[in-house]
Amino acid sequence: MSGFFLLLKRDLILANRNRSELFNPLLFFILVSTLFTMGTTASPELLSKISAGIIWVGALLASLLSIDSIFRSDYEDGCLEQWLLSSHSSSVLVLAKIVAHWIITGLPVIIITPLLALMLHLPTESLTTLMLTLLLGTPVLSLIGSIGVALTLGLRKGGMLLPLLILPFYVPVLIFANNAVQVSASGLDASAQITMLAAILVLAITLTPITVVACLKLSVE
Amino acid sequence: MTFEQFLYMGGYGDYVWSSYSLCFIIFFANIATAILNKRNTIKMIKTRLENTSHDT
Amino acid sequence: MFQFFFKLAAAPNFYRFSSKLLPWLAVSTLLVIVVGLYHGLWLAPADYQQGDSYRIMFVHVPAAWMSMFIYIMMAGSAAIALIWRIKLADLFVISSAPIGASFTLLALATGSIWGKPMWGTWWVWDARLTSELILLFIYVGIISLYNAIEDKRSAAKAIGILTLVGLVNIPIIHFSVEWWSTLHQGPTVSKLDAPSIHLSMLIPLLVMAVGFKLFYLTIVLLRMQNHILLQEKNSTWLARKADEL
Predict the structure, then answer these.
(1) A116, C108, C125, C174: least buried by Cβ within 10 Å?
(2) Taken in order A146, A152, A158, A162, is the CA torsion positive or negative?
(3) Those residues with Cβ within 8 angstroms of residue A53's Cβ, 6 or more apart along the chain or in another chain
(4) Which long-range contacts link A107-111 to residues 24+ away (Cβ below 8 Å)?
(5) Confidence band (pLDDT; 50, 70, 90) for B9?
(6) In this predicted model, which residue has the larger pLDDT, B8 or C91?
(7) CB–CB of C229 and B34 under 8 A?
(8) pLDDT over 70 at A96, yes or no
(9) Which residue ranges of chain C lie beneath pLDDT 50?
(10) Do B46 and C242 touch (CB under 8 A)?
(11) Is the pLDDT at A85 greater than 70, yes or no?
(12) How many CB atoms are closer than 10 A to CB A13?
């Protein structure tokens, strides 16, 4: 267990040293959301209907933008191989890196969302639902994204392959989250969708680390 | 039904026949690529074997 | 009996066996599909509500069934390859992927063409259509990943894992019409209940489904043979048998 916290602390400290890099996904998130408003010249009524979707797509793209860095530098300087060979449980170490990634990218997104929700005229009744979906969904984005990164780590011309692999799996999360917010905006109970998101999160947390380790071992060969 | 009725498909002829042609095209593409790939591979292997046997 | 299957896991035996099987498969595929087409396009009566446009069903539904069936076969094969390390099972996955993608594309396209006269729209973002589209992206992702990795043995393992990860999408497609009341029609052919479709329409549907499966089997064996040849191009059995190919 100590390995988990050691790695987590290390990643957070490293991220803190590159503080400008830290803000990139967050800025991207804000930028994407505001671009939608400028590009569509939408009225407040229309915006309030699609604001949840805009925020979620922004969160998704921000996660996609930053996910490659989760293993990249450690792969390139050889640390990754050492961790896989070490006596620590590889799945636990992988989970530590994913948690670090979520704290760096997912958490800021969630914190800044109320501000964006205000800008995008999100109906106030659905704000808590939106926050809840982001809280449950952004870790899933980090988890699934890490599988994609682990698969494409060794490729030189990985490029567009990573989004192609990951986005199909992001879609169910997006659908449930958006559905939850739409339902709560019309005043109904969204607990079914929230439960589904929670279930997806639990499934992802249990199965992803071992999958990532298997993929990393392939890439590191 | 008559042949004209067959083609016309109760007014839906365009839709029905474009669907079936699409099916035929996709089937044909699968068959063609599978056979061509195999043929090319066999050709490649045969030339490789001829080249390496010349060295002995 | 088991001896037979064990021997089949070796590439040369499999190649020989599939070569013998292929002509039979090809001929029976052609026969079954011709019978199915004759039944569906000529013999079966027009539908009460949809007229003759419902005949698209005889292509659309089997294609959709195949898109999921092939993926499940791929996932099973990937699991076998991962657990028992049988190389042929790895080859089965990459051989099946393009065929699965083709059927998914066919299902989406014919569904869209059928939808236009029936629902008045070419596309709608309902649960089943969206998840079927995701399936297409997953297939394309699998094929792209395999092509991107240079060492084909690692590539095969990587897509094996990816296929298993994508398996979660299949229940979503299948049950989406039950979970969400959407535009797409609910399930009419189930394993346990009597189907809610008339026999004269059910028969060509099932015949076409069988025909499509035979087609899949034919093509996947052809593609596997190609991959075996590529994989074994340096081996001695190939050098000896080269003239027979």
Answers:
(1) C125
(2) negative
(3) A178
(4) A107/A138, A108/A25, A108/A26, A109/A25, A109/A26, A109/A29, A109/A58, A109/A59, A109/A62, A109/A63, A109/A134, A109/A138, A110/A134, A110/A135, A110/A138
(5) confident
(6) C91
(7) no
(8) yes
(9) none
(10) yes
(11) yes
(12) 10
CA distance C50 to C167: 34
A159 three-class SS: coil
Q: Where are the domains of chain A?
A: 2-220
Tell me the three-class secondary structure of C90-146, residue by residue: HHHHHHHHHHHHHHHHHHHHHHHHHHHHHHCCCCCCCHHHHHHHHHHHHHHHHHHHH
Written as one letter, the residue type at B44 is M
Q: Which of C127, C161, C168 sits opposite A214 (nearest CB)?
A: C161
Write the single-letter amino acid at A205. I
Confidence band for A219, pLDDT divided at 50, 70 and 90: confident
- Count other Cβ atoms within 10 Å, centred on residue C19: 14
Eight-class DSSP state of C46 = P
Chain C residue closest to A210 (CA)? C161
Using alpha carbons, list the distances in angstroms from residue B17 to A121, B24, B25, C26.
Answer: 48, 10, 12, 24
Inter-chain residue contact C55 with B16, CB threshold 8 Å: yes
Six-digit token string for C178: 């039950």
Instruction: Report which residue type is found at C101.
Output: A
| Residue A147 and residue A215 in contact, taking contact as beta carbons nearer than 8 Å | yes
Does pLDDT of A159 surpass 80?
A: no
- Domain spans, chain C: 23-44+54-181+197-237
> What is the value of pTM for the model shown?
0.89
H-helix or E-strand spanning residue C227: helix C199-231
- What pLDDT is attached to residue C189? 60
% of chain A surpassing 70 pLDDT: 99
Amino acid identity, position C34: V
pLDDT at residue C182 in the model: 53
Q: Chain C partners of A165 at a C-beta cutoff of 8 Å?
A: 141, 144-145, 162
